[in-house]
Amino acid sequence: MALSRTNPRLAHLWQLPLLILSFGLFGTAAYLFINPRGGMSIDQKIEIARVYLKYHRPEAALDQLNKLITTEKLALPNEARVHMMLAESLDDLQKLHHVSVAGNYERIIEQTRLALAQGVRGDPDIYHRLGESYQALAQPADALESYRRAIAMDPRRFPHLQRKVIELQLAQPDPAPAEASLDEYLKEPKLADSEKAWALQQKAQVLYKRGNFADAKAELNESLRLAADPALQGEANYRLGYCMWRTGDSAEAERLLRLAREQLKVGQPLDADAAYLLGKIRQELNDPKEAAAFYQAVLSSHPESAVAPLARLGRGECRIILGEDAAGLADLHALVRQASEEGTREAYRQDVIAGIRQSAAVLAAQEKYDFALELLEDEHLLEPSPPPDFYERAASVYERHADQIEQTVNDAPTAADKIRRQQDVRRSRTLAGDSYIAFSRALTVADDKAHAAAMWKGVDLYDRAGNLPMVTSALELFAAERPEDGQTPDALLRLGRAYQAAGLFDKAVAVFERNQLRYPQSLAASKSGVPLAEAYIARGPQYYGRAENVLLAVLNNPILSPDAEEFGQALFELAQLYYRTSRYEEAVVRLQEMTQRYPNDSRTPQLHFLMADSYRKSAALLIAKMRDAQSAQAEALAAKKDRLTNAKRFYDRVVEEFGDSTPAAELDRLYQKLSYFYRADCLYDLGDYDAAIKDYDQAAMRYQDDASALSAYVQIVNAYVEMGRIADAKRANERARTLLARMPPEAFTDGSFSMPKDYWVRWLKWTNDAGLWNGLEDERQAAQRFANGTMQ
Length: 792
What we know:
Oligomer: single chain
Distance between the termini: 179 Å
């Protein structure tokens, strides 16, 4: 001791002779091993490996031991020693190079178990090494057993190995064993304050995981009193901050967590947890910018930490809230890829799904539907069998996306772009329909009413998308799967109408008839009558009789009152059917009934036109009858006059009802135009030529770019001729030629007029050049002289 105090350098000189002796022994042993003539024993060869281990050369020891295993015939005790030394060498190798290879841990366990089975007596070091290997391979039960054996053999190792036992127990779902071990650990009288502080923190962790935050805070405050190391204090402050956050005191939690980060420094693992929790608190306080900064700190300084995936999730959510959509989506997409990989922690999957769902809702609220749909696809990837509400959310976003695109269709810069946008609208609406149908199926058992509502919503969207095959497919499936459902008659009605819209009239008839036969008392069956009649009519004249019977049945149906929409539709269709089949008097009766029952019907101008035309055409039939029955000529002439007068009156009403404006509907535009010309025809047939000329002239002026105006002028010419006003007729003919000259070519190519323009050019030229007007004038003068008695 005196020598040590006077000259520290001389105190270590005793090691030099020992080092020289060791090298000598090592050289001699190596020589004897290489030169077998020296007769080196197995014990000596094993001792060489022991020397390698002693001087931290595990690779050399492994070479030596492997040679012994493969080249020597070893006795059982020696073989057991070699196996144990192999395990020790592998352990030293990993620690020397700071690596952790699963295959090495497996070999350590294998070699150790072989050695123990061959008679090697276990000691604390052996079981300590086994425990560490099992722990590294995530085999906690075996690790705990090994550590306990080591502690039982050498109680002096209790604090150190008991901490390993506790750490393993804390990682298990059941905290009770860890709590019992901690209580046992804290009873040790020789524990240092830092060791007690550590144990109190672990016990606090058990308590707050159980929800006992008050007791956890007490343990943590005691730990802070005992801990002198700043890092240990930082851990206690982190856990206290966590408790404060969980009990709703975010301000105090933030203070403690910031303090914890200052004490822990970046190198401590809990710094990642503290930074993540600070980000969580700032995000909850609606401060996404600072929250993102804390999450960034986790990802930059602790990319491999357990909370790194959650930090990326939080950063992605905050970026989206801040409008940094591309960066936020990149974070979330990366998480989805990571969460989809095998071995990813299942506990984080639900957190990721919840975060993606929230971010999708934020993007949808901002009307960024494309991005929201990307996240919905990610959510579906993580949860291939999602809950029903997923389909409802997806349907809503697809539907709003379609409406958004539709608003831009008219602003498309090119025709091709307009078509693409229209296609996108149809695609999104179809996908919305798909989602509602999936939502409907998911609710089949849970909520029958919501199931039907979702199904109808899906069908409506298919219909708006113009996707009739999907409409019919969904309705067919519903009707087939749920024949007893109260909504099935409505589904069949909708299905029949879909077939009707697609031009599949045979299928439409079959579905409507099935509805009436299978569900005769349902309102939907009654509503099937009119479309069934329309489908019959569409199939051709041979089915008109069936259509009439169906419409009469609707009108006589006790379920339907005249106030029902279907009653009015049936009455209208029956009147049109009578009109179409030249049963004009019956058509007038039904049309009069309809105008009386529904005076405010939006189709009133159409009804009046059909009444007018029925009167006009029935008058024409009377003329034909007069030729066949001369005896009833006077009566027929009176009836003809009455019908033409009524026809003129209703044509006037149509003109008045439409007014000077041009109707939007094509059929209304046609009825308006025909009313102008046909009312003049009625006056002409009544012999009121002056009034007829006036109405023809009005019609020709209103439709001067329409080829029908030429017909009006022909009738004006004819009317003047009938009145003997040949000069006026000639002038009218000239006006017709002038009108024809400036009439656009498309007036003769739209299919509304049968005579081509060349025909009218030639005809009007012939009437002007052929001397027709001179002949007519001579005939008129001769007739006048005859009437005056001056003709010889």
